[in-house]
Amino acid sequence: MRIAFHTPLNAYDDGRISGDRRMALQLVAVLEGLGHVVEPVLAARDFMPSADADRLSRHRDAAATHAQDMLARWQGGAPPPELWFTYHNYYKAPDLLGPAIVKRLNIPYVVAEASDAKRRASGEWAAHTQIARNGFAAADLHLHFTDRDRQGLEPWRAPHTALLELPPFIAFADDPPQHAGDAMVPRLVTVAMMREGTKQNSYLTLARILGRVVDRPWTLTIIGDGRQRAAIEQAFADLPEGRIRWQGALPHERVVAEMAAHDVFIWPGVREAYGLVYLEAQAVGLPIVAFDSGGVAATVRSGETALLAPEGDEAALATALLNLLDDRALRRTMGAAARRFALIERNPAKAALILERGLALAVANRAARAVAAEPAP
Q1: Residue 178 domain-assigned?
Q2: Which residue, 132, 153, 182, 294, is the most exposed by fewest CB within 10 angstroms?
């Protein structure tokens, strides 16, 4: 099939670093591997950081113009899509193109990683939320990465709108390096952008957790950079000298190699969507320490490849870290299980099987919608 691939949250393949962008690239690669022709929709980014009504109006007007331009191009002879695939539809980046176009072309509509926000259904974000929800109802198939997202989408499960789990997966050009062996002093590592909001909150939490375990030997390598670096560095300033190694931003291949040179990956993951970095760390053979927050649990096997603490329970997170710091055999066992899990259970081949099934389901649901819409004789 010819598939139009739309990413309203972030412009497709703009070269910037984020798990969202990487997952979009991975999805396209899997779809192409299944033999489909995938054409990214080169539309403006529809992320709206504020609920400004004028901003929403401008985005809607621009989307309407873009939709008309695409329809005119297809009517002029360019091959139209046979399926529309939107990755990431939620109230701050609603799909302003897909529902209208699939209605005009009568083609299947697939949405991956949609998320609902009930508390935004009233108030200043109500209009944005309603647009996102209109897209939820119009979809023939929702691919959800986490159980949290599934729960939000349940109200839209219907005879012609299916929900299908697509667990987060990770792709590597070559087999990633493997953890070489434990050091005498356990080497911790974390990787995250240094921006305000949830990332900064996780960094501040991490600094407090490490302050609880200063009586044990360990070092921490921090890989990442961003606008909040100075504030984040200050949060770690009271830890003993020589414990923290600041690496800044690194090319992706160097990040993976750096992780392989460590023993434990720790990142609190406060309200993390899911976090591909957890899968990367497991792929090189590192056990995970994190909160059971957001979609983190969808990327690990709790108790087997990761020690998860209840969200916000910093004492429990420190205890989980201590368990790994004090038990070299546990680190090795969990690290080996983590590599098997990431490389065998969460690879593109597994995702391809689910996507192949999902696309067939979407096509069938769209056909059923068409039959249901026919007037009675």
Answers
A1: no
A2: 182
